[in-house]
């Protein structure tokens, strides 16, 4: 690996993370003469990275099961939210279960995004188009 090539790869102007990955992968294989004879493996790694990024972007716009569980508990104890959405005589556990069912729907989660942010959600949700 050439340190100079790695530094150059980090400083180079690129349009997206995939291009940066290609440069870093080539720099990792470069010798002290700054030459690299990349093979199919570089293309394969880059393609796998692109697929992984696309998968992560899709997930980032929805709540995971763990997030649904955690935020449904927090929302059930949130005074403003619980006061508005809880039924008379409903326990926190019953309200949390009902919230969890609704949060699994991306459209409903998007409608409640401001409350989710109040209880610690970071990021943004994308409702159904």
TrEMBL record:
Record-given protein name: Uncharacterized protein
Organism of origin: Acinetobacter qingfengensis
Lineage: Bacteria, Pseudomonadati, Pseudomonadota, Gammaproteobacteria, Moraxellales
